[in-house]
Amino acid sequence: MQMSAEMFPLQPAVVPILVGPLQALIAMLPYVFVALGTVLVSMFKPSVLKRFGQLLWSQKLIVAAVVVGVVGLVQLYAMVFPSIPADVASVEKGADWPLLRGTPDRHGATNTGEDPVQGQVVWSYVDGKINTFYASPALVGNRLYVTSARYEYFKDRGAVYCLDADTGKVVWKYDAGKYRATFSSPAVSGKYLVVGEGLHFTKDARVFCLDRNKSEEKREGVKLWEFRTKSHVESSPCIAGGRAFIGAGDDGLYCFALEPDSKGEAQVLWHLKGSEYLDCETSPVVHEGKVYFGLGLGGKAICCVDANTGKQLWRIPTPYPAFGSPSVADGKLYVGMGYGDYVNPAEDVANNLKLKWEKEGRSAEQVAEGLRGVKAAGEVWCIDLETHTVDWPFKAGRTVLGTVAVEGDRLYFGSRDGYFYCVSTKGKLIRKYKAREPIVTAPAIGDKHVYFVTDKGQLYGLDKMSLSLVWGVALNSGTLSSPAIARGHVYVGTSTAGMLCLGQPSSQEARPLWAGHLGGAGKSGWIDNSMLAKTGRYAWGVAGASQDAAPNSPVPSIHAPAAYVDGAVYVGLNRSDSAGLAKFHSAKDLGDEPNLAWFARSPNPVYLSAAGTGEAVFFVDGRPGDANRSLLCLDPNSGVELWRRPVAADASGQFVITYDRLFIADTAEALTCLDISSPAQCRKLWQAQVGPCVGLPCLTGDMVVVAVRSPASLAALDRQSGELLWSQPLPALPQTGPVFTAGRVWIGQGDGVVGYSMVADEPNRTVNCGPVAAPLACDSAWLVCLTKAGEVVLIDPEKAEVAARMKDSIGGIPPVLAGDALLYCAKESLRRFDLVSMEGEHWATVRARWPGRIVSPMIVVDSHVLFATDKEGFVCMKPKK
Question: Can you give the pTM of this predicted structure?
């Protein structure tokens, strides 16, 4: 953890104002000292002391009373205003946090409590004037352990704190022996808490071991031992096998016994000299009897030594300083590296080195040679622990300083380039999120979400699969602390706002919602984040014929994709004798053949997908040109009609819903917003005369964006009032409804897709992929379309470039964008295109003779694929184990 002297210039907020007066005071100090010395000498003359003693003795009763009174007042003050609250909750047992981020895979989380996805600050803690917490917290049970820093002119103070994780109250703290401002994060195992001391410019920093149990009992930090090094100790320790391993900067790596010797002093079991292990500042990890650590600017290497003896087993040189503390999982080591530290980008590092070397007297040629490789770059390496060879490097735009968090077959990390990355354990980019600010700390991995902070203090909570934003909070302070997750909260230190606890889980479970055709604009039939298996096979097919139909009656025609809401599948069935919406429900597993729960008849066939919540189901019958069309609302349990509204014969009838609003093109020239907060009735809120709408309305933020055929345009409406907020004339008719990704509204238009910015004077982005034949699909990383030529085209919306073409696809059936995979129809098969390896593979066989020709768009639910065929009716394909 390289923290150079240039990183922490002596610039406390008060200093710029006091520089002038301070200089004047320094100039007067000699005269002040002479005056004070004269007074003190005169006071300590024997004659003066004798007269003072006689005075005290003559007034001995009064003096005694004053002394007793002062002592009593001090004790009373301590009782009334205790420095440590007595009402903190009793300590709870919890898993140890024996190294930085808690575990070798560096998750930075415990498994207590749900993921926080909403809310602001729960509590904050500052210690008087100490409001800086560079360290990352360690969490054990209901206790949070962290160190603080206050470095100013004439001030170098810090402390080790134990806080109640639920309230932020101090349980105990340790600041004895002039404990200094600290970056090192505590490691906790059993009764032992081990931590370093000092910032980068501390030349004789110490390592401390505290007794956690006795500290809890006495409500004050109890020291077991301390050891003074010959350099700074920014490294966070790793406790393993009754030992503590910690880097000491230019003083190398130390291994201590956890217990002190018979004299109560630290036991150094072995020490790797700093002359051979320069800039040993990362936090080590111990795995299967071996210690792994990186070397910074002076060493540039990844090292492995024997945990018992310290003997070097191997060392791999790196092209950059290995600032990132290594992570270990499944026989692999992952480590970040690059030029640039916690405060300085690579350019400033290069300039600082140049000035340093010139001051040392190096020639211009020597300086130029030394700076040859110092550039803005960063990498993450994967090293095989058995062969200790590099499997692969992954290149980032700038240095990767925080530890890499490993979750299954994915790696998560941030970079100084402003991106947060999700990379496969094979070294392939899965996704990245543009944070627009440098990320210099490590992420925390929850159950369904991943959390990180930018150096300017923006906390992000992203969906772990899609890296889509779920929650964000401004900390109102920069931060060098990595967040930790526990008890349904995020805990993170800040540079000026103290130690923070933020967020909480959602107050209720996510309510079921299928927003409309394929799940809503851009969704493509996948909304539950389930993984698409490597291969699939036929599970069942249901015809859904009426009960009195003849055994060999024709299979009902199905045109619209299914809707999935709260365990039920809703399918528009067009029988020979009737048409309407059917509800299918599986008793146990979606792979088991479902039962027909009910069938609700409609005057016209059903061509549009249904939408629904747990309280109501909606569908539109007919298509443009049909008479007597309606928007119908049904009770999801019984299928009983709750209400209906007319839909004009010349309207598209396309609609989407939220939990309380329904937006529908129910006339040829207008978009109507209905209040559906009560299932029993609906109420028109507004109607916007925008013109003939194309495709689904797209909901983004507080806006509803629609594509209009005449006049050809895009229109953004206020979601609440329907007021026109923004309009963009189009040079050609829109072929699809709009979708929103990569900061732009995209539509099919002309010979491809076009991305329109809502920011004035920003140029449009055009991708000439061919005329589009189906609604666009998108997520935060990809944009997908089906062209009239029958190709499935994968587009990178950030670059506005075609990334891949599936030329073996067949037209008519749009693809499904499902996380890391794209599912599309090919000749007599479904194919899966892996968005990590960018390779396609056979997923399942679907032949025209059986189970039939696919006649409706697909949806993916709980890893199952649902669609209709002309022979089997409604079909389910399940994952093949």
Answer: 0.68
Task: Tell me the CA distances in angstroms from 315 to 276, 288, 289, 299, 332, one per residue in order.
Answer: 11, 17, 16, 11, 15
Q: Give whole-number Cα distances, 364 to 225, 352, 784, in Å.
A: 48, 15, 53
Position 693 scores a pLDDT of 95
Q: Please give the DSSP secondary-structure letter assigned to residue 97.
A: B
Residue 364's Cβ-side half-sphere holds a number of Cα atoms within 13 Å equal to: 0
Q: Is 94 helix (H, G, I), strand (E, B) or coil?
A: coil
Closest by CA to 776, choosing from 754, 806, 798, 757, is 754
- What whole-number distance in Å separates Cα of residue 47 and Cα of residue 869? 114
Whether a cis peptide bond, with omega within 30° of 0, leads into 16 is no
CA quadruple 596, 598, 602, 608: dihedral sign: negative
What is the token pair recorded at 237?
A: 């320790």
Distance CA 350, CA 348 (A): 5
Residue 10 has pLDDT above 60, yes or no: no
Euclidean distance between CA atoms 46 and 366, whole angstroms:
67
User: What tokens were used for 736?
Assistant: 């699809």
Q: Is the pLDDT of residue 95 over 80?
A: yes
Query: Could you please report the per-residue DSSP string of 195-255?
Result: EE---TT-SS-EEEEEEHHHHHHHTS--EEEEEE-SS---SPPEEETTEEEEE-BTT-EEE
Q: Reduced to 3 states, what is the DSSP secondary structure of residue 374? A: coil
Q: What's residue 283's pLDDT?
A: 96
- In terms of Cβ atoms closer than 10 Å to its own Cβ (0-12, 13-18, 19+), residue 253 is buried
Residue type for position 589: D
Closest CA to 280 of 246, 257, 309: 246
Residue 566: CA atoms inside 13 Å, Cβ hemisphere, count?
Answer: 15
**568 vs 590: CA distance, rounded Å:** 9
Spatial separation of the C-alpha atoms in residues 712 and 750, rounded to whole Å: 12
Structure tokens at 571: 């399918």
Non-local (6+) Cβ contacts of 863 within 8 A are: 530, 531, 532, 533, 878, 879
How far apart are alpha carbons 155 and 582 in whole angstroms?
Answer: 74
Using alpha carbons, select from 516, 495, 388 the residue that is nearest to residue 441. 495
One-letter amino acid for residue 250 of the chain: D
SS3 58: helix
Tens of pLDDT along 534-570?
899 999 998 865 555 555 667 788 989 999 998 899 9
Domains in the chain and their CATH numbers? Answer: 118-339+376-504 (2.130.10.10), 513-879 (2.130.10.10)
Cα-trace Rg, the chain: 34
Question: What single string gives the DSSP state of each residue in 651-678?
Answer: S---EEE-SSEEEE--SSS-EEEEE-SS
C-alpha angle 556-562-568 in degrees, rounded to nearest 5? 105
Residue pair 402/440 in contact (Cβ under 8 Å)? The answer is yes
Indicate the burial class of 26 (C-beta count within 10 angstroms; 0-12, 13-18, 19 or more).
Answer: exposed
Tell me the C-alpha distance between 852 and 842, whole Å: 18
pLDDT surpassing 80 at residue 595: yes
Residue type, 830: L
Q: Report which of 150, 441, 410 is spatially closest to residue 283, judged by C-alpha positions.
A: 441
Length of the chain equals 881
Kindly tell me if the per-residue pLDDT of 867 is higher than 90: yes
Beta bridge partners of 613: 513
In one-letter notation, the amino acid at residue 794 is L
Distance CA 568, CA 583 (A): 7
The residue to which tokens 């599309």 are assigned = 824
Q: Give CA–CA dist 256/435, Å, rounded.
A: 40
Mean pLDDT in residue range 151-164: 88
Q: Within 10 Å of residue 334's Cβ, how many Cβ atoms?
A: 27
**Cross-strand partners of 210:** 193, 223
Residue 512's Cβ-count burial label (10 Å; 0-12, 13-18, 19+) is: middle
CB 460 within 8 A of CB 774: no
